[in-house]
Amino acid sequence: MVDKPPHDWAEGPYRIRPYGDLVLREKALPVQEITDVERKLAADMLTMMYASPIGVGLAAPQVGVLKRLIVIDVDRNDPEGSPLVLFNPKIQSMEGETIKEEGCLSFPNITANVKRAAKVVVTAQNIDGEPIRVEGEALLARALQHEIDHLDGILFIDYVSGLKRQLLRGKLRKLQQQSQQ
Ligand code: NI
């Protein structure tokens, strides 16, 4: 893994890694024990996710930490809602198919249509280490698949091919160059 020394995230020690940062291509490791360190990481990830007006999910590798942890809040504007914090999430089943526009906090200003399962069932551990099961449809299903992909170094643009990929090439190259500065 490539780690760069300056931590320029204003709110803490983490910052969101842009496309081109090699940490986004690494496989994250299972979290054996959920301690205050992991709970703080989850809280910092939520802060970073909410800092972007469009963020509905974030995976630990995106902040340079190779742990199997994701946070999601698809109802972020609902004051009654609460975010999902999932450790070691695993997709147990997938159903159907849907194509929708998708973005990623590691890809500012880039979106693309991605085909995903329409429904998923995910098992994980919550912030207290208890097993939980999440059934997701629509945006939640999409977010779960997108964030769990991050834990295996898979990015949404990997599903984009052909003409759209060509159209994005310039923007992607620019992001890659910025990530190496
Ligand atoms: Ni993403």
Number of strands: 7
User: Residue ranges: pLDDT <50 for 5 or more in a row?
Assistant: 1-11
Overall form: globular
Count of distinct structural domains? 1
CATH topology heading: Peptide Deformylase
Q: How do the helices and strands follow one another from N- to C-terminus?
A: HEEEEEEEHH
Strand content: 15-25%
Structure characterization notes:
The chain has helices at residues 36-51, 138-150, 162-179, and strands at residues 57-59, 69-72, 84-95, 98-102, 112-116, 119-125, 131-137. With 181 residues, the protein is of the alpha+beta class. It has a single domain, classed as Peptide deformylase (Peptide Deformylase, Alpha-Beta Complex), CATH 3.90.45.10. The strands form 2 sheets. The protein has a 5-stranded antiparallel sheet, with helices on both faces. Strand 6 (119-125) and strand 7 (131-137) form a beta hairpin. It is globular. Mean pLDDT is 91; it is low at 1-11. It binds nickel (II) ion. Nickel (II) ion binds at residues 104-106, 146, 150.
